[in-house]
Amino acid sequence: MIARELLGTAKIPGGNEHGGELRLFRRELKHGDEFSIMLGRIELMNSRLSGSEEALATLSCERLRTPAPRILIGGYGMGFTLRAAQAVLPETAEIEVAELIPAILEWARGPMAQLTDNCLDDPRVKTVVGDVSAIIADARDQYDAILLDVDNGPDGLTQGDNDRLYSMAGLSAAKAALRKGGILAIWSSASDAAFTRRLQQCGFATEENTVSARANGKGARHMIWLAQR
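Above: the chain's sequence. Below: its structure in token form.
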């Protein structure tokens, strides 16, 4: 087995039952470096598993009809959603990225710079270190799309406070932050029938999409909800 190199650690605000610390690892493989972010023994992200995070952006952005869309991405992760959005959005777009953990953005510009390809330096992009739920709560009719890849989806894993994003109150705040016809897109590691009903009860036109974790269509299957105001 190829040994992993620990590149960095980061505390999760608020902590959790899994240890409250993220660890960034790198493995040197034949076809390039592999990066992974771990929470305890749980792998949250892997640089070879980009398919569903990219689909979060493409499924959402392809539905936008405005010439100058404004979108909010909650959770930078490894930047797969951001880069996929950049690839399909026009030069007139505005992309706001909210990341709660500062080290995630530091890793993007540091040890994972080869992976991120300077995506944070795009003039369309604004980064905010902070809680995306607070940004949503303060917004009214501001976004054409809100893309959430926060925690493990509606069933929070790393931080209990993330649950409020997916409550009725959180969904109502997201709906108010969207412009008419705007899209709330949510990534999850698994389906959740109760959450689908919650979206519908909040008045969203809701669509479920099962997508592959890998860009080649193989591997585990993840869920993306597209909820239109």
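The helical segments are 51-61, 80-88, 102-109, 113-116, 132-137, 168-177, 193-201.
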